[in-house]
Amino acid sequence: MKDINIFCFGFGEVAKNFIKKLSIENYSISLTTTSRSESSKETFKGINYNNYLFNSEKFDQNLLVKLKEADHILVSIPPKNQEDLVVKNFSNFIESSKVKWITYLSATSVYGDHKGEWVNENSKTNPISYNGVSRLKAESSWTFLEKNNKLPVQIFRLSGIYSDEKNILVRLKLGNVKLIKKRDHYFSRIHVDDIVNILFKSLSKFKSGEVYNLSDDKPSSFEEVTLFGAKLLNIKDIEKIEIDEIKNEMMKNFYNESKKVSNKKVKNYFNYNLKFPSYIEGLNHIRNNFI
């Protein structure tokens, strides 16, 4: 049984599924997490752990002891005011720790709009959304630490995440989906199981200073994915709206950007075959097992 002492800044869907994967793989897990709620003792999948308060205004000082003890750090919290809160508050502590694996979860919004063309890790980053700009600045702060302080950092740029619990099929059943037609609008997605499997592979094949795109093999339009999901559920009528009727800012940004995100680097380096190569396999799996 392998031991791992992991500190998770943020404990959302990806982090929880990663810990679940470590447990399945028979790791002995020492876990510490942060959240915006008050510090507490928690249990997850039989693992007792400390959750510490950490937000943009303050943090529980007790987390510093646990942070120094960690040999692995997973950062999944978003930037605040275009700053990475972990770098801002804890870079000195991390520099003097014995950590051997730091993973920062970024987003493919750093690429901005590429008019539906393919992007890879060497493509120009030209974010046009506030979130994209913030993510790129956060990446830069981690890259600076890696280069100047010899910290072991890798960056994963995540495409749109879906899971067995959160996906287009659930939203369709709830009637929360509106169909918007836009020609040549492409985006990429990735099932959380594939993110977690790649994170796990990186434990034994870690290369500091690298950036990887995490996406599936089939960039597609939202319309294509939605109509496929509707067909699986035998839903005939979906409300249609025009692009200029969109009120939600995040959704507006989504339609301002079009790109196909290449996953060749991550698949080749980690010698990984996707569990769900496209939304077709992913949604069929969800429909057959959870809906």
Set down the secondary structure blueprint:
Elements: E1 3-9, H1 13-24, E2 28-35, E3 40-44, E4 47-53, H2 63-69, E5 72-75, H3 85-95, E6 101-107, E7 118-119, H4 130-149, E8 153-158, E9 160-162, H5 168-174, E10 189-191, H6 192-204, E11 211-214, H7 222-233, H8 249-256, E12 260-261, H9 264-269, H10 279-289
Parallel strand pairs: 1-2, 1-5, 2-4, 5-6, 6-8, 7-12, 8-11, 9-10
Antiparallel strand pairs: 3-4
Helix pairs in contact: 1-6, 5-7, 7-10
Explain this structure:
By secondary structure, this protein is α/β, with parallel strands linked by helices. The protein has a domain at 3-163 and 190-215 and 261-274: NAD(P)-binding Rossmann-like Domain (Rossmann fold). It has 10 helices and 12 strands. It has helices at residues 13-24, 63-69, 85-95, 130-149, 168-174, 192-204, 222-233, 249-256, 264-269, 279-289, and strands at residues 3-9, 28-35, 40-44, 47-53, 72-75, 101-107, 118-119, 153-158, 160-162, 189-191, 211-214, 260-261. It has an 8-stranded mixed beta sheet with strand order 3-4-2-1-5-6-8-11, sandwiched between helices. Helix 1 (13-24) packs across helix 6 (192-204), helix 5 (168-174) packs across helix 7 and helix 7 (222-233) runs parallel beside helix 10. The longest helix is centred in the middle third of the chain and has 20 residues, at 130-149. The relative contact order is 0.14.
